């Protein structure tokens, strides 16, 4: 690999020529449609819908996915072709028998009626035609587990819907987690986060299977997610948008990719050792490999000289927010985003621990890695994720909250 | 209908309600743009020109009225159906001589002018009868843009019951713009006509301006491209529309005009439309919800009753929050137009108190009105108020002017329905969940 950092607008650019900054004119984007992740990489047939249906009993629908992937996504739109005959009357997504909510548009399926007044019809915008209540969607509170990892996403207390999305995939000995936070000032932000999380996880696994190294796969996935989100917007004035952060947790390293202000943390289980000369202290954010920040020598594991992954010990922030000022993003996914800078960092934990991936609904209340660490030290990943979400809700729940907890186990020596 | 104006509906509101809150306010801006003028030329139009011919119109007034009616006839587009009615204690069609309306062309315009020359001033004033005759004549053209101009110089001699019954009979069948000339007519009576028949009322201070004013009214009517548009408002079960008022360009309360479309939905008529913008203030009451819950408090659609076509739609939402910073915010549009409605009330109360000899109340109301008019950018109304109430530049104390021209008082009374448009404030947070063109 060359520079750790490049501009991505299309997956092709990300895969083939990582150094090229590509900005597609709006007219060149695909028309808005349900994005199909498979289209964005060359290996479509390899892992159909890997991040899609797994994690539910029906995962076996797709042969490849069934044996390979133990995965689930919180806000998934199943591929349209995957349908078992029935389709959502609102968005056309395929619907499995017995499902209460459409996975495509998140609205209750017919027959479900209104959660407040019973069998009243719910209109296509999601409002009860009798009492007017906006129906809670499946993503209001979602929990997911894959491999040994877990995720929880919650609407919070102040928002009427959950515009965060998450995807978690465990396959081939790696775990992939993606968290996306819909930009609430954009139209239909929940469609952006949902498409980005699903596409990111799927493309990342596909890229690994086609032989890409973790950094390239991470970058390709972010590019694929960017393309999927861009396709949801018809113009810069109608541009669903979201943040993106992915974590690829393998047996010897952790690879993080992001755009925006959703974060990843390393919460090492090992006690904090004394600072090692040449690295930052353990309490502050890790030096983030990012060629855009020409502020001096950086530990750049993926730079041309390839010094290797950044070693990790005690709790540390692995990402650097893309913000102009607090709350004002400088990078996001969306047709209005222009040139998207994909940040990628590669890390080598020196002991066991967990990778925490989250939206600002969590870190807005609990920011320091050292303060997050106790939550994951004792509990199972699912209990830890729940406890962190509960903490954010108890602190006010002003925003949607999404937390993924992915354990890292170093290989036996 | 392929070619018709493009209607948009923009909704400005703060959807956040405090715990237990039930009342939602929203400002609906309806704009018709596009091919209105071109389309209007192909739209059937029917016009009745009603000229007061009561005894008080004698002298120069009847001469000016004849000329104004003639100018109106000349302004009619070829093919428009029309008639001229002389109003006294009776309603008399003076042209055409045969039944019904007649198509405008060179010959009929000339014949109408001839008939107008015979118009004499004699008799009383029965506005309800005049309107009933207009309704009867226009009933033969149900698909047309139907309109009447009404000119009067005196107070109606009919009882309130008779007058109200006539207005109710005519409501929804045509739009009427009325004008008062001289200082012996009652602005409140013409305001009633304007409210019931979805038109305007106005004051012609100088009879010599009648001709220009009539010509302008006809030109505006000739620009109407859609005969009737209704605001269709759905509210949830156990909710209701508390009020729906037009707030721009003039104030007019539509609340009482609701026609039920289904148990949860009512249609409110708005009359005919050319290329124009009108603003409405909707207030709905809904059952209180839990913090975090969101409901659609009103689903607003703009419909053409003749075709059933939905021209635009939008949601008025309510979401409960315990965050006072959110729930106490008032949307700029709601604040502005609430102020304009208050201005109208202050002027009406002030003028009423002044007429009743309660000068303290009159001074207080009109003084506050003048300050509010100035603050809200309603310069026209501020100027009218300045003729009636003066404010000491040193002490800020309001004082009624000792002698007020009767015409100035009528101008203020009539003009108080005109509101100032809100200064454009693009990108205001909290504005609009529901902008949508037809589709
Ligand atoms: Zn659906
Ligand atoms: Zn309901």
Automatic annotation (TrEMBL), chain A:
This is PPM-type phosphatase domain-containing protein. Residues 50-87 have a biased composition (Low complexity). It comes from Planobispora takensis. Residues 1-89, 139-158, 271-308 are annotated as: Disordered. PROSITE patterns: PPM_2 (PS51746). Residues 148-408 form the PPM-type phosphatase domain.
Automatic annotation (TrEMBL), chain B:
SUPFAM superfamilies: vWA-like. Residues 411-439 are annotated as: Disordered. Residues 46-221 form the VWFA domain. InterPro entries: VWA_3_C, VWF_A, vWFA_dom_sf. It comes from the Bacteria. Gene3D superfamilies: 1.20.120.1690, 2.60.40.3670, von Willebrand factor, type A domain. PANTHER family: VON WILLEBRAND FACTOR A DOMAIN-CONTAINING PROTEIN 5A. This is VWA domain-containing protein. It comes from Planobispora takensis.
């Amino acid at each position: 690999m060359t520079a750790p950092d490049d501009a991505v607008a299309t997956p092709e650019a990300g895969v083939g020529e990582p150094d090229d900054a590509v900005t597609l004119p709006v007219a060149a984007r695909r028309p808005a449609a349900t994005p199909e992740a498979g289209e964005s990489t060359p290996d479509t047939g390899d892992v159909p819908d890997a991040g899609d249906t797994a994690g539910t009993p029906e995962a076996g629908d797709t042969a490849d996915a069934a044996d390979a992937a133990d995965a689930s996504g919180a806000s998934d739109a199943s591929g349209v072709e995957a349908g078992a005959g029935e389709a959502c009357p609102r968005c056309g997504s395929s619907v499995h028998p017995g499902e209460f909510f459409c996975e495509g548009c998140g609205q209750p399926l017919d027959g479900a009626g209104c959660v407040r007044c019973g069998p009243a019809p719910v209109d296509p915008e999601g409002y009860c035609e009798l009492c007017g209540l906006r129906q809670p969607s499946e993503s209001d509170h979602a929990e997911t587990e894959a491999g040994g990892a877990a995720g929880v996403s919650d609407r919070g207390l102040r928002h009427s819907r959950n515009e965060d999305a998450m995807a978690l995939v465990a396959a081939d000995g790696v775990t992939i987690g993606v968290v996306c936070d819909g930009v609430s000032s954009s139209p239909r932000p929940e469609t952006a986060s949902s498409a980005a999380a699903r596409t990111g996880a799927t493309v990342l696994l596909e890229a690994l299977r086609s032989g890409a190294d973790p950094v390239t796969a991470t970058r390709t996935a972010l590019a694929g997610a960017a393309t999927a989100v861009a396709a949801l917007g018809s113009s810069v004035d109608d541009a669903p948008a979201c943040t993106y952060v992915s974590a690829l947790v393998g047996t010897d390293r952790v690879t993080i990719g992001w755009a925006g202000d959703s974060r990843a943390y390393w919460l090492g289980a090992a006690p904090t050792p004394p600072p090692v000369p040449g690295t930052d202290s353990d309490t502050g954010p890790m030096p983030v490999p990012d060629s855009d920040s020409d502020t001096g020598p950086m530990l750049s594991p993926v730079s041309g000289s390839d010094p290797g992954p950044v070693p990790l010990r005690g709790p540390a922030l692995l990402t650097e927010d893309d913000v102009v000022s607090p709350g004002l993003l400088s990078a996001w996914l969306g047709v209005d985003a222009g040139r998207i800078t994909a940040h990628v960092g590669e890390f080598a934990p020196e002991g066991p621990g967990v990778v925490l991936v989250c939206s600002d609904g969590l870190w807005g209340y609990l920011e320091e890695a050292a303060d997050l660490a106790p939550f994951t030290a004792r509990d199972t990943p699912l209990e830890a994720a729940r406890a962190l979400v509960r903490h954010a809700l108890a602190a006010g729940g002003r925003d949607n909250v999404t937390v993924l907890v992915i354990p890292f186990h170093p290989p036996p020596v | 209908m392929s070619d018709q104006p493009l209607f948009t509906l923009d909704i400005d509101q703060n959807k956040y309600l405090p715990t237990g809150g039930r009342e939602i306010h929203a400002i609906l801006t309806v704009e018709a743009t596009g091919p209105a003028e071109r389309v209007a030329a192909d739209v059937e139009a029917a016009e009745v020109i009603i000229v007061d011919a009561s005894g008080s119109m004698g002298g120069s007034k009847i001469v000016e009225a004849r000329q104004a009616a003639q100018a109106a006839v000349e302004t009619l587009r070829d093919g428009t159906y029309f008639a001229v009615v002389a109003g006294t204690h009776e309603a008399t069609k003076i042209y055409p001589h045969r039944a019904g309306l007649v198509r405008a062309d060179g010959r009929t315009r000339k014949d109408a002018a001839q008939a107008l020359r015979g118009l004499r001033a004699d008799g009383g004033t029965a506005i309800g009868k005049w309107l009933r005759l207009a309704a009867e004549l226009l009933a033969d053209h149900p698909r047309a843009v139907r309109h009447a101009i009404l000119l009067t110089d005196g107070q109606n001699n009919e009882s309130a019951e008779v007058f109200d019954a006539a207005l109710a009979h005519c409501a929804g069948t045509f739009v009427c713009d009325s004008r008062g000339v001289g200082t012996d007519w009652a602005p409140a009576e013409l305001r009633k006509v304007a409210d019931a028949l979805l038109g305007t009322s106005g004051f012609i201070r100088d009879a010599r301006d009648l001709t220009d004013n009539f010509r302008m009214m006809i030109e505006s009517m000739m620009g109407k491209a859609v005969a009737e548009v209704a605001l269709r408002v759905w509210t949830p079960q156990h909710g209701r529309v508390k009020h729906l008022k037009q707030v721009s360009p003039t104030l007019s309360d539509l609340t009482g005009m609701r026609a039920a479309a289904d148990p949860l939905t009512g249609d409110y008529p708005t009359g005919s439309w050319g290329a124009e913008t009108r603003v409405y203030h909707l207030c709905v009451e809904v059952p209180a919800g839990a913090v975090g819950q969101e409901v659609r408090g009103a689903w607003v659609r703009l419909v053409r009753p003749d075709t059933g076509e939905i021209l635009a739609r939008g949601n008025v939402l309510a979401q409960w929050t315990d965050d006072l910073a959110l729930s106490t915010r008032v949307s700029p549009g709601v604040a502005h137009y609430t102020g304009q409605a208050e201005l109208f009330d202050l002027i009406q109360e002030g003028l009423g108190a002044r007429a009743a000899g309660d000068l303290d109340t009159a001074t207080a109301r009109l003084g506050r009105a003048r300050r509010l008019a100035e603050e809200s950018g309603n310069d026209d109304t501020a100027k009218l108020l300045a003729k009636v109430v003066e404010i000491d530049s040193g002490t800020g104390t309001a004082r009624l002017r000792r002698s007020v021209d009767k015409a100035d008082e009528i101008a203020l009374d009539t003009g108080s329905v005109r509101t100032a448009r809100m200064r454009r404030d693009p990108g205001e947070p909290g504005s609009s969940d529901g902008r949508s063109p037809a589709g």
